[in-house]
Amino acid sequence: MAVEITGRYAGGLKVDLRHGPSGAEMRTAAPVDNNGDGSSFSPTDLLAASLGACMVTVMGIYAQKNGIPFDGVEFRLEKHMRADPRRVDRLPVTIRMPAALDERQRQTLENVALTCPVHRSLLPEIEKDIRFVYEVEAPAEV
């Protein structure tokens, strides 16, 4: 299944993107360290964000299908660039997971995350330091 994404140069080192199926739009901007103003996600920021979003999404799919509590899961990552050639070099990621998960659920969800399509698509040379922290408390029932 193909998904059409279109882009149009908007000037000022910015590109307007449109997601074909939903019509959602966003703008990228070149980062400050590469002649831009850093006013939005850069293309490499989107690449980095895709890793975290993909890992959390596929874990959420697995959790939903298997009745595993998953509310409140968050990720934080950093994108580190290298200069020659200019490319993403390192993506340390921390994923905050529900504290109440048992050991089997933890291992299964971690494996699901580490086999997400984006993780599998990134160059092996990109250092991906993935850390799972089990501290998210279940939301209080009302």
Quick description:
It is built from 3 helices and 8 strands, in the order βββαββββααβ.
Question: What does the model show?
Answer:
The protein is an alpha+beta fold. The protein is 28% helix and 31% strand. The chain contains three helices and eight strands. It has a three-stranded antiparallel beta sheet with strand order 1-2-3, with no helix packed on it. The protein has a three-stranded mixed beta sheet with strand order 4-7-8, covered by helices on one side. Strand 2 (14-19) and strand 3 (25-29) form a beta hairpin. Helix 1 packs antiparallel against helix 2. The longest helix is centred in the middle third of the chain and has 23 residues, at 43-65. It is globular. The termini are far apart. The mean pLDDT is 95.
In round numbers, the mean pLDDT is 95
Helix fraction, binned, reads 25-40%
Given the structure, what is the number of helices?
3
Strand order of the largest sheet: 1-2-3
Span between termini: 41 Å
Q: What is the molecular shape?
A: globular
Q: Which secondary-structure class do the elements indicate?
A: alpha+beta
**Main sheet attributes: strand count, strand direction, barrel closure:** 3 strands, antiparallel
Radius of gyration: 17 Å
Number of strands: 8
Secondary structure blueprint with pairings:
Elements: E1 5-11, E2 14-19, E3 25-29, H1 43-65, E4 74-77, E5 80-83, E6 86-90, E7 93-98, H2 103-114, H3 117-121, E8 130-136
Main traits of this protein?
3 helices
